[in-house]
Each structure stands twice: as structure tokens, then as C-alpha cells.
Amino acid sequence: MSDELLMDLADCGSPEKLIATILQHHPDWQPPVPLEAFARKVGIVEFKDLTVEGFVGALMTDDAKAQGVILVKAGQREARRRFTVAHELGHFLIPTHRGSKHCTAQDLREGRRETEHQRQEAEANRFAAGFLMPKPWFERDMDGLGEAEVSHLQDLARRYETSLEATANRYVELSEDACAIVFSKDAVVRYARAGRRFPKLAVGKGDGLPPGCASLLAPQVPLRTPTDWSEVDGTVWVRAEWGEWAPMILEQSMRQRGGYQVTLLFTERHDADHDEEERDLERSWQVGFRR
Q1: Residue 189 falls within a domain, yes or no?
Q2: Residues in domain IrrE N-terminal-like (predicted)?
Q3: What are the DSSP calls for the chain, one per residue?
Q4: Is residue 112 part of a domain?
């Protein structure tokens, strides 16, 4: 165990600072990160199967967090197991997260901050995503793949040994483009996330894929083969109030086994100032026409 590393980590108050410090101490690392070896280095003494119903991961430790044991629900795919381990490691390393933790599948998707529990779970998720897919590496690899393709998510997931869903979330988070991702099964939305530059999506969990979207044509394409890019009207995917501008959407989809499907959406950057300028211009035209 490195005393210098532990001292530096103890001074870190955020997931991002923890990750930056870890990478500074390991400049020769390449993806995938050596997750369990590193965890042992900082005080995790054992990895065990979790048998408690309703939970997918847990951390057993004391308030001092000198040592810990990480438990993971048996049977998880390796990529999901890695995210669970990294999530629990986040709880262990973030100084304000005290004591043992038991985490549900929902906790591992948490991004809200309304309650203390939500805040801590969201921070552990930020740590897990950032540690498994460090920003400088991931952005470099995104750029290296060239023009966007939904199949790039598979390539990145293999490289970082992460699930397609976690990889897609990181892609949307770090992309400079206005993009969104939609996961569906049998044409019903399982999960959707829009990047910070993308307009508000009109679909969410439990909704059917919207009429007019190109993703409904994906069953005509072989498994794990991206569809061609299609341009669809923005109102198919985007929630726009009356009179608001809805940009055209570029859409590409890829089918997986068992009726699962992933859809990648791109559009022009959503700029509120630009929208207001457009509305002002339209109002000026209307005034002119009334004359």
C-alpha cells in the first residue's frame, strides 16, 4: 500500500479530484484500468459474492475506512461487475461517504442530488465512470474513431471493459456535439439520456419508440450492424413548446440480441440565445406582414 498515494487521496474532496490524483500516480496506465489490483492497493482486502436480495453491490467497512470488503451480486456480466466494484470503491475513497453501503441497481444509475443518499450514490457513479473511462483517455479515443457511428460505442466498451450503457453515458457526457442516446427493447424505451447541449427528449422509460423515427426500421438490418444515418423531423424526438424551434435530428440505430436496441441522436447545438433570436426575427416578420 502506497502511503504517499493514500495521503494524497485523503485530501481529495470530489470524485474528479480523486481520479486526477490516481492518474497522476499512475502515468503509465492504459485502458482498461487495473481495477481490482488498484482497489487492493488502497485498502480493499477482499472481494466477495453478495447474497442479500435486492442489492447488486455493497461495501463493508468501518468509519475510519482503513480497510474494506467489496461485495458484488453473483452472476453479473464482467463489464457490469467492474462498474459495481468501481462504484463501491468510490464510496470507500470519497471522504464524506461514511460507513458501510448497500446499493441497488437504481443506485448505480442515480444522478439526482435532492437527498443525501442520492448525492452520495451520484458521486459514486461519477467516480466509477470517470475511473473506468478517464476523461483524457476517452476523449482521445472518441476523436481517434473519426466520424460518429453507433458502433463506436461497442468499440469503446470493448477497449474499456465497460457495459454498452455505461459507455454510451460517458460518450454523451463528454461529446462536444449535441447528442443523445436511447436504449430500447421490443420498441419500448428502457433508458434515455440527452447531453447538455441536446434539447429535452420527448421520450422516457416505458414509452414506445416514437412514430416516424428511423429506429423502427432497424429490424430490417442484421444484428450489431448500424443502420444508415437518417434525418428526421425534430419533433419526432424532441419536446418543443408551441412556437419553439425543433431542429432536424440525425438518427442511427443498432440492434442487439433479444430485441434490445441502441439509438444515437445528433442535432445542432441547442442554444437558448439562438432560439430567442429566431423568435424575435419571426415576430419582426409577422409585424411586417401585418403592415
Answers
A1: yes
A2: 62-170
A3: --HHHHHHHHT--SHHHHHHHHHHH-TT--SSP-HHHHHHHTTEEEEEEE-STT-SEEEEE-TT-SSEEEEEETT--HHHHHHHHHHHHHHHHSTT--S-EEE-TTGGG----SSHHHHHHHHHHHHHHHHHS-HHHHHHHHHHT-S--THHHHHHHHHHT--HHHHHHHHHHH-SSEEEEEEEETTEEEEEEE-TTSPPBS--TTPBPPTT-GGGGGGGS-TT-PPPPEEE-GGGTB---TT-----EEEEEEE-GGGEEEEEEEES---HHHHHHHHHHHHHHHHHHH-
A4: yes
Q: Over its length of 291 residues, how does the chain's per-residue pLDDT go in tens digits?
A: 578 998 999 999 899 999 999 999 999 999 999 999 999 999 999 999 999 999 999 999 988 899 999 999 999 999 999 999 999 999 999 999 999 999 999 999 999 899 999 999 999 999 999 999 999 999 999 999 998 899 999 999 999 999 999 999 999 999 999 999 999 999 999 999 999 999 999 999 999 999 999 999 888 889 889 999 999 999 999 987 766 778 899 999 999 999 999 999 999 865 554 555 555 544 544 444 343
Q: Are residues 128 and 140 in the same domain?
A: no
Q: Is the residue at 180 inside a domain? A: yes
Q: What is the CATH number of the domain that holds 268?
A: 3.30.450.20
